[in-house]
Design brief:
Low-confidence stretches: none
Shape: elongated
Radius of gyration: 27 Å
Strand content: under 5%
Order of helices and strands: HHH
Helix content: 55-70%
Number of strands: 0
Structural class: mainly alpha
Number of helices: 3
Largest sheet: none
Mean pLDDT: 81
């Protein structure tokens, strides 16, 4: 039983280290370049989406200078 468990653990560890069996991108250079550009364009928008979710792109309501508050 211990032998099977160690073999299973070894196979699971090896499977994690090998990576995906099916390649993500094409083997053709031109097609792979288009696929990588498409993926990078999608990833480029993540910071903008993050700022919009957390409302970091909104203008600050605090004034950058001190105001008098009275009648001048």
């Amino acid at each position: 039983m211990r032998k099977y468990m160690l073999t299973g653990l070894l196979l699971a560890t090896a499977a994690v280290q090998v990576g995906c069996i099916v390649p993500i991108y094409s083997s053709s250079r031109d097609r792979r370049a288009r696929q990588l550009i498409f993926v990078s364009e999608g990833l480029r928008h993540i910071p903008n989406i993050w700022e919009r979710i957390w409302a970091l792109d909104m203008p600050d309501v605090a004034t950058p200078y001190r105001t008098h508050g009275g009648v001048i």
